[in-house]
From TrEMBL:
<keyword id="KW-0012">Acyltransferase</keyword>
<dbReference type="GO" id="GO:0016747">
    <property type="term" value="F:acyltransferase activity, transferring groups other than amino-acyl groups"/>
</dbReference>
<dbReference type="InterPro" id="IPR000182">
    <property type="entry name" value="GNAT_dom"/>
</dbReference>
<protein>
    <submittedName>
        <fullName>Acetyltransferase (GNAT) family protein</fullName>
    </submittedName>
</protein>
<dbReference type="InterPro" id="IPR050832">
    <property type="entry name" value="Bact_Acetyltransf"/>
</dbReference>
<dbReference type="InterPro" id="IPR045865">
    <property type="entry name" value="ACT-like_dom_sf"/>
</dbReference>
<feature type="domain" description="N-acetyltransferase">
    <location>
        <begin position="202"/>
        <end position="351"/>
    </location>
</feature>
<keyword id="KW-0808">Transferase</keyword>
<dbReference type="InterPro" id="IPR016181">
    <property type="entry name" value="Acyl_CoA_acyltransferase"/>
</dbReference>
<dbReference type="Pfam" id="PF00583">
    <property type="entry name" value="Acetyltransf_1"/>
</dbReference>
Amino acid sequence: MDTTPNTWRLRVELDDSPGALARVTIRLAHQDCNVLALSVIPVPGGVLDELVVQAAPGLLPADLVDAVRAEGGRCVGITAADLRDLVDAPTAALRAAALALRDPNAVGEALRVVMGADSVVVKPAEPGAAPETRPAPHREVDFRAGGPAAPEEAPAYTVKRGWSPFTQVELARGQALIDLLAAAGAAEPRPTALLTDDGMALVLRAGRAGDEEALAELHSRCSMGTLFSRYHSGLRTVPRRWLHRLLTPPRGSTAVAQCADRVVALGQLIPTSSPDCAEVSLLVEDEWQGRGVGTALLGSLAGAARAAGYRELVGWCLPAETGLVRTAARAGLPTSVRREDGLLRVAVATGGSPVTGPGRLESASRQVASG
């Protein structure tokens, strides 16, 4: 029997009467619950109280909701809480802004932290399309630097949270972060330059329509062994109908590494049935293997996965393969491995402090030496 306490984040509406919140906390204490944090969030017409509660073993979320209702309150939302995330909002916002200022590709992750969102994904710019606005209560909202007056080429960040609507305060925090980063010139993802272990310069960027020919040429230069490791089949060439899907997978994302006019590596994130897990795959041209390209690509994908709310990446490898485990180790990402259906299931944690490995990542706008 598991005796590990569960930690929950509750948002509740209480009657505006003296002692209402105290009565709720006392009732929770009688059920062996420990209130770890409490914050008050202003909303139109009153406030929401947010409690982080460590529940006794065997106590269900429904029991916590019943405790709130017994004191005349209403539970607006409840979700599992991570003790690692217990930090006051101003500190979290400052840390997130600092992260995004250092690395514009971490804007999505910073926005997720500041807004307490489940996920943040970047939507490519669509000429003629304005940021979507939704009436309250908000569970999904789009942000662009500059707000509604933003240029059409500016990307939008779609922020989602299922367990509780965003409050106006949280929406204001999100827009303030985007505006701050825009003023500093760091409000959107940008290609990053990679200097490999042996001094060659590449660019990491998102895959896009129009890369089909370069992607086909990448596959034609890969050995049969490399292709078999990636696709677990003996294909020599990739059917043309696959190329567009590899570049723009449904609900997933693709990143590529490019040297001059050649795409030399490809990485993908594909959602799974679990909201906390995505499947990851890498393909690195033989000539570029062992030079830090896969490490940088996996680190970039892990950052995108964290912003999207994934805590784990899963890769499926042949039993004798150790490449993904070694690549994750160089990227500073913990792994666990088990056999499943004749393959190795390599689980890569996204919650560590990934580094780029021996290959150094820099802003593409900065000058890099070519090898």
